[in-house]
Structure formats: structure tokens, C-alpha cells
Amino acid sequence: MTRDFEVLREERLHGGFFTLLRMHLRHTLHGGGWSEVLTRELYHRSSCVAVVPYDPIADRVVLIEQFRVGPLKSGENPWLLEIVAGAVEPGERPDEVAHRETMEEAGSRIRELIPVSEFFTTPGGCSESIALYCGIVDSAGLGGVHGLAEEHEDILVSVIDFAEAMVLLGEGRIRSAIPIIGLQWLALNRDRIRMRYGAA
Hints:
Blueprint: E1 5-15, E2 19-27, E3 38-44, E4 48-55, E5 60-67, E6 79-82, E7 84-87, H1 94-106, E8 112-120, E9 129-136, E10 144-146, E11 155-161, H2 162-170, H3 177-196
Parallel strand pairs: 4-9
Antiparallel strand pairs: 1-2, 2-3, 4-5, 4-7, 5-6, 5-11, 8-9, 10-11
């Protein structure tokens, strides 16, 4: 089966924290032929990186909490438990961003960076892609408020036992998709990581 698409027209509706585009396009169909011309809005932003900071010796996870505008329209609590994340700036590699953001948002250096996965967060309407890592850290002394004032960041850092992180996950108290994916990966790979560091 041939898969193809055509972007017939693209309009820039807004440029701000995100760029909002309106795209007029069509694509081939699974049963053959072409679709009608579709009109879709697309939030466009650069690629991003996320890191699960994990201390395999202490078996502890570093979580952050910050205000997010997304939950406001649904009436949910806008202060979300998350993991370290940030955008890839021009000329940066994802692994460089992982190290930079972990220091800025959690005050921690990464001892080893383990690639986890790359994925689109909301492919139905947003171009954002995430390179997800597990960052091996020393959690001793971590905590407090972090973030860059010029980026209006107000980030509360907490270090919790892995078991407590799994309770938060199981109770649905972590409401953002990226930390859910990261913590589920850690649950599947934790024993292997701890064995590498002589902690299991």
C-alpha cells in the first residue's frame, strides 16, 4: 500500500509559547484513493526532553511540582507532580538538555543517562516529541525550590522512595502522561538498574 500526503496550504494563526498553524491537507486511504481535503489546527513547538531522576542506591525518585495551565479548563488542580523536562534549543543535543534541565529544575547532576524512548505526546494536534531518559543521580541533599526566574519557573523538588512513587502512580495522583510513562518504565527496569549499581 502506498502512503502519501499533500499539504495544500498552511496558515500561521498565532506565534507565542506555541505556534498555532492551520493546515489544509489530504492523505491516501487504507482502502485506496485519497481523503477529502482536511483542515486541522496544529500546535507546533520544538522537540523536548524529559528525565526520571533516580537514585538506585537509596531507591529514591526525584519528582517536581509546578503550576501548569493545561488543567485549568477542566477544573483540575493545576499544580502537577512531574519529572524534569525542557525544550531542545537550536544547536543542542537531547542528552545535553537532559543534563542542563536536571540541574536547573532539580539541582542535581546526572551520573549516567539511560535512553528510554522517543514519542509524540499528543499527535492528534501537537508536533511536540519527547526524548525520555532515566538519569542516575545521588539524591542526598536534594529538595527545595528551583527553576530559572527569567523563565518564570517555580519548581518544588521532592525526593521520595520508589515505593511511594508507585503508590502515587497507582492512586492516580500523577496526572501528567510523561511522568506516568517514565515511572512505569522505571518499575519495569528498576531491578536491573539496581543490580548494575550493586544495590539489589
